[in-house]
Specification:
alpha+beta; two-stranded antiparallel ribbon; 2 helices
């Protein structure tokens, strides 16, 4: 492979790596909103009958770093049953 072919190869890879015109901030915000909506659904539908024995905590956040999107934080869904705590985190795709 000659130098011009190698240059062209790298140029094509760079162009494919980040498609133009994608609003990564909007995608990140939509993803964060979808995670929040999922947490709402879990609380409303799946935990409705267990509300007396399960406490929910959404105050903790986790840092996330993704290519193109960058760094952001997303809320954890913490569930405590008695003295046991389990956390679910939905972050990157």
């Amino acid at each position: 492979m000659g130098q011009s072919q190698l240059d062209e190869f790298f140029r094509e890879k760079k162009q494919k790596a980040q498609p133009p015109g994608i609003d990564w901030t909007a995608k990140r915000d939509a993803w964060s909103g979808a995670v929040s909506a999922l947490y709402d659904t879990i609380e409303r539908d799946d935990l409705a009958t267990a509300k007396d024995s399960v406490s929910v905590d959404r105050s903790q956040t986790k840092p996330v770093s993704e290519a193109f999107v960058g760094e952001y934080t997303i809320h954890e869904l913490g569930l405590a049953v008695g003295d046991e705590l389990g956390c679910s985190l939905l972050a990157g795709r």
